[in-house]
Specification:
single chain
């Protein structure tokens, strides 16, 4: 089946680049390329941090560590998506089928198109945010390049990403080539991190749209004009509800492990970046540091917020199914139809949500807890500094 309209085109393009989209050409070669590229980048970054840890300032070490952790997070995300490729294929195919079935009803199509356009706007906004974050993150390179030949020399040359490269980079063309490659690599990886989060929002919005369609059916099936719906109509509603539960289960299976990794890594990254922002206030070059780190800090917070919002939104939407069924005129129907709707109400009381590694549910309360934990860790680091 052609996966038309399964997700927005921007996300599809980036998923093809990183070898996640099903049936992409040269899928194995793309995965092999990114595996080698990310492993080499991680090796050089960790080697730099280990070798130069005693000679750099503590705030600089926190800055380098946060950058390394963000790349490690991407490596784990890609590994999970590659490992669970079949699950992702099922999700996309179910979305494509939902799009096909919605074409027959005006309300269903309008809801689905609205959520798709909202996901597209979020994807474009994410690309802009992460591109700006990369530009500000790399600003120290451009500042050094424009300071003049007196201040820019071999000894002061710095890389976009701190790496312990095992060959001489002091030659002009080699250095500039490394800068260009690092900048492109950083831009591609950072945008992919953001779009994987938008993909989750896209899937959740699609589920929310299907729930809105189901709620509309429940309100119309037991109206004053239709007190005795046909058995086929009731079966249609039950199958729709079951399909929503299965689709949500696929999302939970795909993103549960990712959510666990995100919460652990984002807590550390937000803590490190917050420490840098606090310690840079009042220093001579504090404004430059804040401009360089602030968007990176906001991007990490938005990543954690996106996961928590997705869990909260899905949980609230799942509960609304039972409310819609209860608020309909189900009590005026036949007894056999009443029992079916009562079972649907009872089933909807078990909320559908996304968990953090099957341990706890994602919610906005978890996001506030993450921020509190990061703030407490910053206090410990300030006391140690």
């Amino acid at each position: 089946m052609k996966l038309k309209n399964a997700t927005c085109q921007v996300i599809e393009i980036w998923l093809r680049i990183f070898g996640i989209w099903p049936d992409s050409s040269y899928l194995f070669l793309r995965r092999l390329f990114w595996t080698i590229a990310l492993m080499i980048e991680q090796t050089f970054q960790y080697q730099y941090l280990i070798v130069h840890f005693d000679s750099i300032e503590f705030s600089e070490a926190m800055y380098i560590f946060s950058s390394i952790m963000s790349y490690s997070l991407l490596v784990i995300k890609l590994g999970i998506f590659w490992y669970k490729q079949r699950m992702f294929d099922k999700i996309l195919r179910m979305m494509a089928i939902d799009w096909k079935r919605c074409s027959d009803a005006e309300f269903s199509m309008s809801v689905t198109i609205y959520n798709a356009k909202l996901s597209q706007r979020l994807a474009h906004s994410t690309l802009v945010l992460y591109t700006m974050a990369v530009m500000f993150y790399s600003s120290h390179i451009f500042v050094n390049r424009t300071d003049g030949d007196k201040t820019f020399n071999v000894s002061t040359r710095r890389l976009v990403l701190h790496m312990d490269i095992p060959f001489d980079i002091n030659r002009k063309f080699i250095y500039e080539l490394i800068i260009i490659v690092q900048f492109i690599h950083l831009h591609l990886c950072s945008c992919m991190i953001g779009l994987l989060n938008v993909l989750l929002i896209n899937l959740i919005l699609h589920v929310g749209g299907q729930i809105d369609i189901l709620r509309r059916w429940l309100m119309e099936i037991f109206s004053k004009e239709r007190k005795h719906p046909s058995l086929s109509t009731i079966k249609r509603i039950i199958r729709k509800h079951q399909r929503i539960i299965i689709f949500s289960g696929y999302i939970e299976d795909l993103y549960s492990s990712v959510a666990m990794v995100v919460f652990v890594s984002d807590t550390l990254i937000i803590c490190c970046l917050a420490f840098i922002l606090v310690t840079s206030i009042g220093t001579s070059n504090g404004l430059k540091i804040i401009m360089r780190v602030l968007l990176f800090y906001l991007a990490m917070n938005m990543e954690a917020f996106a996961f928590c919002f997705a869990g909260e939104y899905l949980s609230a939407k799942s509960k609304s199914i039972g409310d819609a069924a209860y608020n309909s005129l189900w009590y005026e129907a036949d007894s056999k139809d009443i029992w079916i709707i009562l079972f649907l109400i009872m089933r909807s009381q078990t909320e559908i949500t996304i968990t953090i590694g099957k341990v706890m549910n994602l919610s906005l309360e978890r996001f506030t807890g993450l921020l509190r934990a990061s703030a407490s860790y910053v206090s410990v680091l300030l006391a140690m500094n």
